[in-house]
């Protein structure tokens, strides 16, 4: 077994990722989802560890674990507190020793994986990719993805799964990645002790990939999206090819906002235009161009222009400065990857297991060597007048939302709460004690003379700096009457540069320093340390002095009106709207909506006035994190943002409190969906500062967040097999809060799943949760606190979010003490007072529930 250990002291967190060199390519004929099914079964129990124990162990470590199956690899990964890394390693080793592929366990898991299939088959983009792979890779294992099919899962048995695992799940076919705040020598010794005696054996030969010539094809699929999507796809070299590095640079060039493809957007010819790489396999990949167009518009002219643009670049060559910019961006991105422990583990896993490299640095070194001639050669070889797959996803008509009289005919069911789980001795010893975080890494928190709140945290993990900021804003309250949509138009205009740099000049200035920047009510820039001041200068110029040119306004206004027209008819918007109408009083500001008419009535002066009145320093918080001191950060922020002044009275950005809602139900038709997406929700009478927020959150982690170890997953997925996922959440702001449960299932099971959810909510209201459940929920919440700092972006986002709501910056540490002190009686009392199952609104998107 190959083992890679990388020390990264960003946070007291470790990511463990096991990569098996097997995936969709190696599945038996007629069973395309066998590797995917085996991935699911690893959560149903392993050697010396039952399904319940597996879920409980990972829940007690914070619940941040998952897996995925690709064409040539299967990955199991978890991020845990550094103190728990040995438990995570032992759990992974248990599964390498053997997985419980019994018929009884598969019978339960099959329902869940079939719901995952139904979810993806309800996604028009997934259906497009399925057809695309079949066209581009006919006759090879690449022609089918790893998801699988319902008919094949119905024929799959536990014995077949065990045979598959016995062939491919062996140490010599695995790469173990451990990244984070660890002692490498001690960790390696622990791995030797846990894995060293696991027998290994040779694996079967991997299937050969013999690509056939591509036959051009054109097709149209119905869609539930609010716009038309047009695709042109080319078969490109794979990660094994010596042309792979040049191909990545070419893709970046074609995707540049200074390239002609994106130029279709400011020219008013598309709502969006992009280029990218997908389905990246060792022997081939897919390059694709995408255009988004207003609903009802013919995609052929835009597709023809996109093809002409690509052929022109392939025939005549691409701009040299765009190649240089793409190389700078890729090199800078490698530095930023170090700022996230899970991302760093993923990048290394993909490089070693997915691409066969010794390090992701090999990719970077190869891209450094790419020349303009390399890029032009690859463009000509793979793109010029090549066979392509051309597809259009066209919005299809859907019926109006239908009010439902009831919630189906399922009987109310009762059962005892989930029984306590006895952990294996090796896990019990490490996880039996709650770990209450007590240390908050200090930050600098100051207010500048113009009212900006500046928060700085120094982190020297990489020579980079990230700046994130928000301007408190609520368009539902701040948009003048009849100007609904003005904020969205303003947001789209930031990309047109500044009063001193036009669109192309501004983008070139960013490219010159490999910066990633965005402006608006949420703004940010990521930049190498040496360009920190220049990056902030460009960010401030864009945020405070957007160009807002008249020609761009006219184009953006028309594009926004066209998008809104399609969005109002889309199932996604209608579902969200139906939920808002059911939960909110009829005159609530949130119910204001932009229409094509309100957008087209706007004048450029309306947009300029809106920017002047809403983008204010006294409503702004900026977080700076990275290789910079507080004094350095303050000097740079004051230099470029310091002259910004607020004028006029401070606007109100806080929604009023509202009463709880009444129960109702509605079905939103979606002709493309084979699965129902269900939301059960209600307004509850608390806000983020209510003391009952904490026992409700703790109760939520009894219900969800820990996979099979928590009630809803246990009841709806592990036992009943009704759903693939079920999520419970409470969204609380300064003045209001909502409580919701979301799940997806077949139409006949909507009411059955709802009945189980209501039963579990009633039990939370009327019965004390068990000691084991309470302990596990506390462990989930307490361990999620360090996990929330596993990346610089997560740290900055947390600081920014707390500042904007008005919470102390060390709120997670304060909350930990509150969670630790709560009792089962506290949880029951909070649920009994605030969560009323009889008030639940039910919104179903998809076929009518049966």
Question: What do you see in this structure?
Answer:
50% of the residues are buried. The protein is globular. The protein has a six-stranded mixed beta sheet, sandwiched between helices. Helix 9 packs across helix 11 and helix 25 packs across helix 28 (771-787). The chain has 31 helices and 24 strands. The longest helix is centred in the N-terminal third of the chain and has 19 residues, at 103-121. With 850 residues, it is of the alpha+beta class.
Give the biggest sheet.
6 strands, mixed
Low-confidence stretches: 406-417
State mean pLDDT (0 to 100 scale): 94
Q: How much helical structure, as a percent, in the residues? A: 40-55%
**How many angstroms does the end-to-end distance come to?**
50 Å
Counting DSSP E segments of at least 2 residues, the number of strands comes to: 24
Count of DSSP-assigned helices: 31
Radius of gyration: 27 Å
Q: What is the topology, as strand order, of the major beta sheet?
A: 13-20-24-21-23-22
Beta-strand fraction estimate = 15-25%
* Computed structural class: alpha+beta
Give the CA-based shape. globular
């Amino acid at each position: 077994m190959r083992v890679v250990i990388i020390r990264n002291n960003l946070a007291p967190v470790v990511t463990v990722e096991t990569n098996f060199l097997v995936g969709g390519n190696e599945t038996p004929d007629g069973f395309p989802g066998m590797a995917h099914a085996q991935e699911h079964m690893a959560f149903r129990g392993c050697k010396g560890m039952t399904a319940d124990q597996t879920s409980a162990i990972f829940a007690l470590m914070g619940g941040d674990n998952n897996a995925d199956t690709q064409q040539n690899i299967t990955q199991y990964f978890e991020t845990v507190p550094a103190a728990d890394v040995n438990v995570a390693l032992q759990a992974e080793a248990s599964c390498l020793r053997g997985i419980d592929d019994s018929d009884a366990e598969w019978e339960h898991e099959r329902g869940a994986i079939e719901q995952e299939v139904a979810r993806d088959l309800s996604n028009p983009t997934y259906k497009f990719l399925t057809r695309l792979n079949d066209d581009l890779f006919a006759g090879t294992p690449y022609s089918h993805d790893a998801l699988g099919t319902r008919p094949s899962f119905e024929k799959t048995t536990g014995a077949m799964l065990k045979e598959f695992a016995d062939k491919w799940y062996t140490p010599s076919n695995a790469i173990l990645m451990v990244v984070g705040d660890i002692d490498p020598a001690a960790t390696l010794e622990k791995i030797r002790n846990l894995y060293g005696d696991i027998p290994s054996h040779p694996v079967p030969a991997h299937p050969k990939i013999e690509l056939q010539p591509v036959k051009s094809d054109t097709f149209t699929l119905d869609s539930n999206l609010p716009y038309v999507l047009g695709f042109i796809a080319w078969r490109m070299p794979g990660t094994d090819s010596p042309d792979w590095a040049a191909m990545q640079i070419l893709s970046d060039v074609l995707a540049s906002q200074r390239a002609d493809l994106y130029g279709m957007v400011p020219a008013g010819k598309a709502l969006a235009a992009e280029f990218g790489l997908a389905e990246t396999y060792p022997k081939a990949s897919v390059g694709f161009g995408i255009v988004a167009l207003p609903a009802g518009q013919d995609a052929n002219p835009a597709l023809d222009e996109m093809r002409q643009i690509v052929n022109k670049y392939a025939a005549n060559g691409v701009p040299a400065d765009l190649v240089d910019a793409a190389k700078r961006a890729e090199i800078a991105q490698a530095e930023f990857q170090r700022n996230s422990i899970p991302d760093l583990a993923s990048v290394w896993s993909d490089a070693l297991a997915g691409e066969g490299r010794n390090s992701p640095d090999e990719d970077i070194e190869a891209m450094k060597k790419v020349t303009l001639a390399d890029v032009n050669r690859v463009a000509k070889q793979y793109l010029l007048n090549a066979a392509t797959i051309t597809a259009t996803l066209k919005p299809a008509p859907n019926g109006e939302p239908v009010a439902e009289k009831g919630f189906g005919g399922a009987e109310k069911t009762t059962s005892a709460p989930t029984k306590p789980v006895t952990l294996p001795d090796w896990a019990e010893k490490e996880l039996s004690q709650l770990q209450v975080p007590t240390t908050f890494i200090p930050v600098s928190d100051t207010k500048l003379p113009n009212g900006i709140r500046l928060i700085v945290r120094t982190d020297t993990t990489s020579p980079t700096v990230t700046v994130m900021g928000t301007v408190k804003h609520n368009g539902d309250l701040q948009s003048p009457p009849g100007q609904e949509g003005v904020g969205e138009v303003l947001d789209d205009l930031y990309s047109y540069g500044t009063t001193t740099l036009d669109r192309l000049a501004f983008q070139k200035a960013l490219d010159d320093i490999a910066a990633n920047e965005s402006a608006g009510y949420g703004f940010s820039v990521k930049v190498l340390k040496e360009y920190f001041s220049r990056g902030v200068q460009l960010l401030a110029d864009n945020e405070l002095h957007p160009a807002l040119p008249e020609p761009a306004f006219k184009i953006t206004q028309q594009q926004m009106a066209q998008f809104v027209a399609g969005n109002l008819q889309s199932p996604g918007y209608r579902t969200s709207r139906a939920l808002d109408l059911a939960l909110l009083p009829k005159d609530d500001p949130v119910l204001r909506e932009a229409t094509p008419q309100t957008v087209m009535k706007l004048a450029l002066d309306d947009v300029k006035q809106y920017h002047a009145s809403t983008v204010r320093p006294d409503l702004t918080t900026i977080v700076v994190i990275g290789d910079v001191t507080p004094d350095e950060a303050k000097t740079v922020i004051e230099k470029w943002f310091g002259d910004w002044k607020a004028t006029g009275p401070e606007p109100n950005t806080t929604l009023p409190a509202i009463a709880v809602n009444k129960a109702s139900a509605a079905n939103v038709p979606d002709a493309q969906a084979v699965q129902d997406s269900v939301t059960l929700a209600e307004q509850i009478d608390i806000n983020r500062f209510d003391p009952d927020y904490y026992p409700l959150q703790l109760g939520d982690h009894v219900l969800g967040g820990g996979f099979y170890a928590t009630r809803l997953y246990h009841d709806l997925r592990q036992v009943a097999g009704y759903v693939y996922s079920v999520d419970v959440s409470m969204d609380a702001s300064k003045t209001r809060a909502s409580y919701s449960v979301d799940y997806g299932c077949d139409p006949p099971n909507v009411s059955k799943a709802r009945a189980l959810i209501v039963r579990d909510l009633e039990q939370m209201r009327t019965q004390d949760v068990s000691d084991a459940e309470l302990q596990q929920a506390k462990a989930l919440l307490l361990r999620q606190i360090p996990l929330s700092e596993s990346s610089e972006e997560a740290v900055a986002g947390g600081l920014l979010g707390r500042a904007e709501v008005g919470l102390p910056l060390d709120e997670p540490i304060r909350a930990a003490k509150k969670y630790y002190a709560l009792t089962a009686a506290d949880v029951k009392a909070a649920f009994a007072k605030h969560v009323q199952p009889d008030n639940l609104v039910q919104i179903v998107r998809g076929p009518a529930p049966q």
